[in-house]
Amino acid sequence: MSQEKRKVAIIGGGITGLTAAYYMQKEAKEKDYPLEVILIEATHRLGGKIQTVRKNGFIIERGPDSFLARKKSFGLLAEDLGISDQLVSNATGQAYILVNDGLYPIPGGSVMGVPTQISPFVTSGLFSWSGKFRAAGDFILPKSSVNGDQSVGQFLRRRFGGEVVENLIEPLLAGIYSGDIDKMSLQATFPQFYKLEQEHRSLIIGSKKTAPKQPVQKSKEGIFRTFKNGLETIVEAIEEQLNPGTVMKGVRVKRFERVGDKVNLFLNNDSEMLLDQLIIATPHLAALPLFEEHGLMTEFHDMPATSVATVAMAFKEEAVKQEKEGTGFLVSRNSDYSITACTWTHRKWPTTTPDGHVLLRGFVGRPGDESAVELSDSELEKVVLSDLRKTMKIDQNPLFSVVTRWKNASPQYVVGHKEKVAKAKKEIQEQFPMIKLAGSSYEGLGLPDCVDQGKAAVGEVLEELFMNTIK
Questions:
Q1: Which of 362, 376, 387, 439 has the fewest Cβ atoms nearer than 10 Å?
Q2: Mean pLDDT in residue range 278-290
Q3: Which part of the chain is the Amine oxidase domain (predicted)?
Q4: pLDDT grade for 217, boundaries at 50, 70 and 90
Q5: If we measure between CA atoms, which residue out of 442, 447, 450, 452 comes closest to residue 419?
Q6: pLDDT band (50, 70, 90) for residue 150
């Protein structure tokens, strides 16, 4: 190939940036593109929020613990890396909602909290009879007349009333986004709800009609996947397969400027880098300072990001007596607890825990009430342990704990988010057509969503650089 050699940099070594770097180098090698790809990470490790602690036979996640299997891109990435044989499924089991000191099973047939089976919903102790009757209004209410975006909370309260939303749907949805559903954008987070209402009028009827049919004789398999040795397995595999000398750790981009049809990076090690294309795959809070001098992404200055903490605690099996069988619980916001959820990790992911032991993971911090995240490690452990002792008998202290804080780490997709992202990308394209924006702050914060964005950015870059060879 006689084309001029091109240079691309990717800022941000989280899963989006790692995906972009891996697939960019893979495509360049397979199609013999004259391309140099550099990954720049400000910290001294790759993976972003994917962090696994391997200690005393335990596998403990500091960040996400799995990915949704039906979103194929993450599993396909594992296949491309040659590590799909290390994937394991979660153990299936009952999950609960904690309301007024009681653990109530999530009603069977719930799809993101929306019932598709009437009997489990009617017999559930999660709601009063008046709450159940109000939720039945979904069968007769007309379609929403709201034009444009609206909050998830506004939409769902209109369909089901406050009690069902607060005791079932809100804990499930807020747990995914660590957000306030009364500010969360319906179109950016759960557009399928709006689509179901428009097509079927009733969310219950629509969810029932569109729910995937499970083969009767097929053994039930969990809907989540992770790696036997922890989620960081995929970070380690990508780093190992990236070309030698193409990853810069502990290097921060201070600013950039346009030079003709290229972009020049100024790094904190006093070096510069002239590029044909640039992918910025950092959270919006890290990207904002780079765009500020160019008057871009101004709408993202008021985009909130919540802080959360997790406390993983390891026990001897005899120290914990659990009456309930299952994989964990979520906490209704009306309950007097500091924790927002607890995973019974040893049950959900049996490969994480040595025989004869128990592993519990408590979550702390919700929008508008994040003060607990600032507590010391020992104080956080006491808070979580105190809350867990209200739900099960724990008569010993943990063998050890792993406390993790994520400050301003969960971007909030508030009402109007999609329009905000589209406007920012359009303005960037006009001033810096060689810059692509990707990552959890923009078009999905789940692991497969981030992989999708990284791959999409690669496709755009390669098409622009080698347009004549990609058809």
A1: 376
A2: 97
A3: 15-462
A4: very low
A5: 442
A6: very high
pTM of the model: 0.94
Burial category of 465 from C-beta neighbours within 10 Å (exposed 0-12, middle 13-18, buried 19 and up): buried
Name the pLDDT band for 10 (thresholds 50, 70, 90).
Answer: very high
User: In order of start, what are the domains of the chain with their CATH numbers?
Assistant: 6-45+233-303+414-465 (3.50.50.60), 106-210 (1.10.3110.10), 305-410 (3.90.660.20)
Query: What does the block give as tokens for 427?
Result: 């303005």
Place of tokens 């697939």: 23
Q: Give the per-residue SS3 of the chain.
A: CCCCCEEEEEECCCHHHHHHHHHHHHHHHHHCCCEEEEEEECCCCCCCCCCEEEECCEEEECCCCCEECCCHHHHHHHHHHCCHHHEEECCCCCEEEEECCEEEECCCCEECCEECCHHHHHCCCCCCHHHHHHHHHHHCCCCCCCCCCCEHHHHHHHHHCHHHHHHHHHHHHHHHHCCCCCCEEHHHHCHHHHHHHHHHCCHHHHHHHHCCCCCCCCCCCCCEEEECCCCHHHHHHHHHHCCCCCEEECCCEEEEEEECCEEEEEECCCCEEEECEEEECCCHHHHHHHHHCCCCCHHHHHCCEEEEEEEEEEEEHHHEECCCCCCEEEECCCCCCCEEEEEEHHHHCHHHCCCCEEEEEEEECECCECHHHHCCHHHHHHHHHHHHHCCCEECCCCCEEEEEEEEEEEECCECCHHHHHHHHHHHHHHHCCCEEECCCCCCCCCHHHHHHHHHHHHHHHHHHHCCCCCC
| Amino acid identity, position 216 | V
**For the packed helices 72-81 and 232-241, what is the interaxial angle rounded to 10 degrees?**
50
Of the chain, the percentage scoring pLDDT greater than 70 comes to: 97
Average pLDDT for 122-138: 95
Which pLDDT belongs to residue 365? 87
Do residues 37 and 273 touch, judged by C-beta distance below 8 A?
A: no
Tell me how crowded residue 250 is: count the other CB atoms within 10 A of its CB. 12
User: pLDDT digits over 65-107, tens only?
Assistant: 999 999 999 999 999 999 999 999 999 999 999 998 899 999 9
pLDDT reported for residue 124: 95
- Dist. CA 306–CA 413, nearest whole Å: 11
